[in-house]
Design goal:
This protein has a domain of about 80 residues. The protein is mainly α. The protein is elongated. This is Geranylgeranyl transferase type-2 subunit alpha. GO terms for molecular function: Rab geranylgeranyltransferase activity. Its EC number is 2.5.1.60.
Length: about 250
């Protein structure tokens, strides 16, 4: 394919393949769609961040799972595919995004109990920790880390990894993540994503307790916001608003 990022080429291929479902037997049609999945795999190995190809892959998988093609769930295989692609390129935002979309279904299909869900969460945190230790300047890693934090907090409908976490458990995990991110500052002092995460997560942690902002937290956030103003001058207004919100002098 000469122009792999041309949206309408993918749409046209999809239309042709849908004709196969309508006009060919299920067995033959499934073979055609399986060959298409292999083509997408090859495309993503050539251009692993092509979000058009990632979106098209999700469409192809959905068709292969459908009853018309005698399909069954491919969630485990697709989750493994994201793992392989992330190992190949930690900066693959589309792979991290696809992974986050697969997780709720993956755990439901595994019929994961509370213990299995907690173990899964900790493994995912370990995976993204390993990535952040070598590439904290990569925004895609922070996207996935924030997804896991939201899963812990049950925010934005994403409490689908762990369920029925007590406030104390949520606070414990959040404090551990803040401690991990603080450690990153020992090696990376000029990465704005670190400071932004520290401010956001520390502010969130304070809402889980009744003691408000501790003086030590205010002092630290004042320093972090000062650094953010240096590293991200285009968003000075945002840092000023955060300063007002946390009442930092």
């Amino acid at each position: 394919m000469e122009f792999p990022k041309c949206y309408w080429l993918w749409k046209y291929r999809s239309w042709i393949l849908m004709q196969a479902i309508e006009r060919l037997s299920a067995v033959v049609s499934r073979t055609v769609w399986e060959e298409e999945l292999e083509l997408v795999r090859m495309m993503l190995h050539r251009d692993r961040r092509n979000f058009h190809a990632w979106d098209y892959r999700r469409h192809v998988v959905a068709q292969l799972e459908a009853s018309k093609l005698g399909g069954t769930s491919m969630t485990e295989a697709e989750f493994a595919f994201t793992t392989d692609m992330i190992k190949w390129d930690l900066s693959n935002f589309s792979a991290w995004h696809t992974r986050s979309q697969l997780i709720p279904r993956l755990l439901d299909e595994r019929d994961a109990d509370a213990g299995a869900r907690k173990a899964f969460l900790e493994q995912e945190l370990a995976t993204v920790h390993e990535a952040l230790n070598v590439g904290p300047e990569d925004q895609s890693l922070w996207y996935y880390h924030r997804y896991l934090i939201h899963a812990i907090l049950g925010a934005h409908g994403q409490g689908l990894i762990v369920r029925d976490f007590s406030t104390r458990n949520r606070q414990k995990y959040l404090e551990e993540e803040v401690a991990f991110i603080k450690d990153l500052l020992e090696d990376y002092v000029d990465v704005k994503w670190i400071y932004e995460a520290l401010v956001e997560y520390t502010l969130t942690a304070s809402t889980l307790t009744n003691d408000g902002h501790r003086q030590t937290s205010q002092s630290l956030m004042s320093a972090w916001l000062k650094k953010l103003r240096e590293l991200d001058t285009n968003r000075t207004g945002r840092w000023d608003e955060l300063e007002k919100q946390i009442k930092v002098d």
